[in-house]
Design goal:
Largest sheet: 2 strands, antiparallel
Structural class: mainly alpha
Order of helices and strands: HHHEEHHHHHHHHHHH
Shape: globular
Strand order of the largest sheet: 1-2
């Protein structure tokens, strides 16, 4: 794990603090950036999101899809958890906390926007950081690549319908045009562009060229994430400073969801006698989120200063310490699982 990944929570916290300070000291520039929209897509943020997402998409090897049947039990658990359980439990927790348990202390419209942000996080399984978590548990890299590739393909088609369904259940108006535009802009387009770039790199220098490109692009990806967080908190600084408990209220269902989803997948993998090197990444991908996509779509659908955008950024802050704790737990419980050929 590199320096950035190891201290991601710290960098995000510093970016949040910088955004709050700058938003209070110089609100004009943030308001001008927030106004730069086309079809409710914020252009500065769109550029930053592409800087984050594109290197990840270059790393997706569609050739790995031919190996989807090599580890069927682990992949089945991954798909069931990611697409049939996780989005719905996230929405249910959001409704429970924001429309019932926390309802006396929050504005109803704010609660609906926080719920929307959680729904966007729950419907977007991890694309990039799961490689970090898998590596820390010595997971099977080929299996991790297969599960990411399959999930990215499914996401192109399933993300918008699932989000629309759950936003409807949460009594939130669904701007279908903006939602479909966001999926095309932040998932389909970078996925296709990444595939084309990967093919060109492989022709020139094989997988070593792909790895070298990802290393070169990493600083831009880091900068995109941190600048996006700074913009979000700069625009919402007044609200956050006036109500510091908002972060804790948003984090509560996110923490419950993260640990709950991990143990659902992890224990299912144990019951199915999935080998540890597959079980660990199988559980971790469902726990982690494609927060870059969630942030981008929240901004497109609800605006840069919305509660939905705030909720997705809190997801970034919560995710890394949670994932590191789960990696440590998985490594301590490696003996729960069979290993290698005996488990196939």
């Amino acid at each position: 794990m590199g320096l950035f990944e190891r201290w991601l929570s710290l960098w995000v916290a510093l970016a949040m603090a910088a955004g709050l300070a700058l938003g209070e000291l110089a609100p004009g520039p943030f308001q001008a950036l927030a106004a730069m929209e086309v079809a409710r897509v914020n252009l500065p943020v769109a550029v930053l999101i592409w800087a984050m997402v594109f290197p990840m998409m270059v790393g997706v090897d569609f050739g790995s899809l031919s190996h989807v049947r090599d580890r069927p039990r682990g992949l089945a658990i991954t798909l069931v958890v990611n697409w049939l359980i996780k989005p719905f439990t996230m929405a249910a927790l959001g409704v429970l906390f924001f429309q019932h348990l926390f309802a006396p202390w929050i504005d109803p419209q704010e609660g609906r926007e926080w719920l929307a942000g959680l729904i966007l996080l729950g419907a977007a399984p991890c694309t990039a950081m799961v490689f970090v978590w898998s590596n820390l548990t010595r997971g099977d890299p080929n299996y991790t690549l297969v599960q990411v590739s399959v999930n990215d393909v499914i996401m192109v088609f399933a993300f918008a319908p699932i989000v629309a369904l759950l936003l409807g259940v949460g009594d939130i108006a669904v701007p279908w045009g903006t939602l479909l535009l966001s999926v095309g802009l932040y998932v389909a387009a970078p996925l296709l562009a990444g595939a084309a770039a990967r093919a060109r790199l492989v022709r020139r220098g094989g997988e070593a060229a792909v790895a070298a490109f990802k290393d070169r692009a990493r600083p831009a990806s880091m900068a995109g994430l941190l600048l996006t967080v700074t913009l979000l908190f700069g625009f919402q600084g007044g609200v956050i400073l006036d109500r510091p408990l908002a972060i804790g209220m948003i984090a509560t269902p996110l923490l419950i969801q993260s640990y709950g989803i991990f143990f659902v997948a992890y224990l299912a993998a144990r019951a199915a006698r999935v080998p540890f090197e597959v079980a660990a990444p199988c559980a971790l991908i469902g726990t982690s989120n494609f927060f870059e996509l969630a942030v981008a779509v929240a901004i497109s659908l609800f605006g840069l200063g919305s509660g939905a955008a705030l909720a997705t950024v809190v997801g970034v802050l919560v995710e890394v310490p949670v994932m590191l704790s789960l990696v440590a737990f998985a490594n301590r419980t490696r003996g729960w699982f069979p290993t290698g050929e005996a488990a196939r």
